[in-house]
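sorry for the late reply, my laptop died twice this morning and i had to redo everyting from scratch. anyway the thing you sent over, i finally got around to it. pasting the sequence first so we're on the same page, its 415 residues, then the predicted structure underneath. double check i copied it right bc i was rushing
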Amino acid sequence: MSGRRTLEPPQELWRAGARELAHGVVERLSLARQALAEVGQFLAEIESRGPMELFGHGSTAGWFAETARITPKEARDTVARALALNEGRNLDGTPAAAFAPLAGAAAAEGDLGPRQLDPLLEVLKKIPAEISPEERSGAERTLVTLARHAGPREIIIAGADLLAHLDPDGDEPKDEDLKPPSREVFLRKRDDGWWRLNGLIDPEFGARANALFETWGQRRPVDEDGNHDLRGPAERNGDALFDAIHYAMTNDKAPTLSGDRTTVVVTIPLETLSSGLGSACVDGVARITARHARMLACDAKIIPVVLGSESEPLDIGRAARTVTPGQRRALNLRDRGCAFPGCRRRPKHCEAHHVLPWGSLGDTDLGNLCLLCRYHHMVIHGRSGWQVRMAADGRPEFIPPQYLDPLLTPRRNTR
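ok and here's the structure:
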């Protein structure tokens, strides 16, 4: 065991400057790591002699848990770490080399603690047995050098790269590895009409979902009026999932059910549709506002059913109401994304909006359509005061509410 000096804290820490405080923390962290490394050396020696012979205890970890007043798991982890870092003895008394001697030396110097040692040891355990001792020692040296100045995440990432270099083919797959991934998703409708979604997904699905949330769930940029996106991470993820499902439903290559692509049927009385006041029914169960129904009717795969005063179907929407693939391509080229001023959402994140609603005899043609992202589609159909119209050049322009611009000067997206 190496000698270790002790440090007395300053009598009046409130007088210490920033450099002195930082230096004091770093020095004491190093001493704490040295002390933990020395505890590991004691534990390795106890394991070599036998805890039963020394203390009448069945295991070193069990004895250590009682002595240190810690949980059995923490004791087992500490003993396992100590045995990997320190030299032991074989049954015949000959020395047994440490599993990770370089890491053990760095720990004894106070440079590495458990947070660095545990991921480092995990990487070393995964190195294939056929790798030469020289290559393995080089890998340990590389990881120890990194760990002296890096945290657990960096060590894990570097370890994965190192393993890929040493063993690019990976382990030979076992029979259970060849089974298809098990993915479970549960969707349950609540009494209030909302739905609860939960489940368990495999690593590949999880990585793809995380990438989708990171890409489609980004904060909206500050618009021309200085408004910020106030949604939290959960709200942005929810909107991203909606956008992804909407994109899949409106894709030309979407699978069909009984010959039809995935559809949602919205039932609404004619008077409600015309006034925008009241509510509509989605798929015969959930109720939504009339404004929401009018917004849904703008885009594809929504079939509107308009009812008369006696609840008789006056009109059942057909596929002709939806934007055709050719029209969609033309919209993408013309608007190049959400047409709302200041928005930078790309076409794939947008919906086709009828400038003159179809309920007011608006046609589904380029002269009556523009692209809007989900958020700004809701803005236009809501009570925000914003209005959209087609200018003389055939491009959409937006009239702000009077409180933003008393002159009601039309605005465009300057993308």
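The longest helix spans residues 18-49.
thats about all i looked at so far, will dig more tmrw
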